[in-house]
Amino acid sequence: MTTLVYDLPLPDLTSLLESWGQPAYRARQVWQGLYQHLYAEPGQFTNLPQTLRTRLEQELRFAALTPLARLQSRDRKTVKTLLGLDDGRQIEAVLMRYQKRNTLCISTQVGCAMGCVFCATGQMGFTRHLSSGEIVAQVLHYARLLRSEGQNVTNVVVMGMGEPFHNYDNTLAAIDLLNDPQGYNFGARRFTISTVGLVPGIRRFTEEKRQVNLAISLHAADDELRSSMLPVDKRYPIAALLSACRDYVAATGRRITFEWALVREVNDTPEQARRLTELLKGLLCHVNVIPLNPTPGYSGQATTAERVQAFRELLERGGIPCTVRLRRGIEIQAGCGQLAVKSLKNQKDPI
Ligand code: SAH
Ligand code: SF4
Q1: Tens digit of pLDDT for each residue in 222-235?
Q2: List 59, 92, 163, 208, catalytic entry
Q3: What are phi and psi of 243, to 5 degrees?
Q4: Residue 288: CATH number of its domain
Q5: Same domain, 195 and 300
Q6: Which ligand is nearest to the CA of 165?
Q7: Cβ of 335 below 6 Å from ligand 1
Q8: pLDDT tens track for 185-225
Q9: What is the residue range of 12's domain?
Q10: What predicted TM-score, i.e. pTM, was given to this entire model?
């Protein structure tokens, strides 16, 4: 299959065009067309000679993702798009428009190998990694949509389908590409990567001293409970995970976010809140709690509003900052990380 143009960083694009006998400035023009003007096909590059446009068309692929269906929440603030890949697989990417922000939630894999029991993506199993270009293309899809309304993407959370640190190289290559000041110029601080807790990935990320925000899916404060919810805990138990998190904060001075999906009578108890407070004491961090979004393959239920507040108060009393996240766009299953492709198929709205 021909190379996807978004898989090429600028130096690779430059060498390719040089191999076609093009001067170096042509690659920069293509780069600007792709990432500043957001052109989606060679025909739009009217500043290029026709012969080059034809060559681009013949040798590179510009369409990475085909929108197959779009679901909108009733208040129209959340949009989820089912996107078809070239091999017929499907992923989802979500746009959330709240408080003057246009936040995207993007996917890094088709399915996920981590098998977290409450997660719709985990229940699907793993199919394949996305290439860096397929990750980039999700951002471009919404960037074009927003630009047509005079708006921009303001934040990107890597919290869609898949485990980003299982696909480390492609995920970070996508972020680096979008970060390029000569191209899309999207600041590293406006990205957040969420990981289930792959310790080697966290350590590598720490060494690279990136400005990208880091979130850890913790969900339980002891290994017995955590490994029953997140199988990865058997490989990287809480002590190893927290040690990597402490080293990250020490090395970067950056605050870490911990995510906690509250499951009624499972991890929403005062005992779990107390243990969590102990675990996080003294660490520069923040906890996001969100009531579980129930999924077909898991019997756990969402916590009640009272229990959410009680949990939050216990953490705050213990000195741990905590925010309750709303389940935005819940009626379109747009909670990141539980993007149920299977259920979406049954309610597909052609666009
Ligand atoms: N694989 C990464 C990123 C994708 S999941 C990770 O696990 O962190 C993004 C977030 O959604 C994670 O915190 C995940 O635990 C959470 N999540 C998954 N399924 C959920 C559900 N059914 N209800 C609430 N949160 C869920
Ligand atoms: Fe994968 Fe994250 Fe879902 Fe776990 S919660 S199965 S790591 S996508």
Answers
A1: 999 999 999 999 99
A2: 92
A3: -65, -40
A4: 3.20.20.70
A5: yes
A6: 1
A7: yes
A8: 999 999 999 999 999 999 999 999 999 999 999 999 999 99
A9: 3-61
A10: 0.95
